[in-house]
Amino acid sequence: MMNSPAEIAKNYVPIGKGKTTMKASKLFILGILAGMFIAIAGVGASTASVSIASASVAKLVGACVFPAGLTLVILAGSELFTGNCLIIISVLEKEASIVGMLRNWVIVYIGNFVGSIFVAWSMTACHQLSLFDSALAGATINTAVAKCSLTFGDAFLKGLFCNFLVCLAVWLGFSSKTAAGKIAALFYPIMVFVLSGFEHSVANMFYGPAGLFAMGNADYLAKATADTSKLTWGAFFGKNLIPVTLGNIVGGAIFVGCVYWFIYLKKDEK
Question: CA-to-CA distance for 86 and 16, rounded, in angstroms?
């Protein structure tokens, strides 16, 4: 049995409301878990693809591994900022407040950052990046450089389309009542966003810092082929995380949340 789109919209209203009233400590811990889940999926995707010579095939392989992150978020239970952009549905239904939504977003976002950056640091500390003669380290640094080299507009639009797909993946996950159905439903939207090179703020909380931490190891730095002068903490926040986050909000809250609320929940005027 599947829930229809109208049923998904109706069922989400109390879920979103609950997210705005949860204790801050629980939100923060669940946010840390989600950040770790997405970061570990990033580690797996990079590890699986780094030694594949064909760039397009490598991208596809990594894209097929990365959905493990959202699978963990949904089935294990955690709070992911990008998915929580759907809380706007509960706000528009007047079941949750804007303040409550923003409170959730801020606490969860910080928690996601803590979880992601912990995994990013750990991958250098435990020498995970030394795999394949440190080719994984070089690829990690190159990825971070590429993300910090985007223009504000490019990062914003890539963030918009990313969370359009991520929130659709979460939405589709609510269509099924079984674990297998949820995994199957969310897999393709996530695979497509990774394959397309769109930008996810929480994933980038791993990729950016992972590259920055890796630069502190001379052996890792020697494996990078990109211009590492472009990779700084300032560039990470200013040229990537901020515009990507704004794009994620628009793509998820407006293009999915507001649209589906308007279609399935808004009361038609007589």
Answer: 7
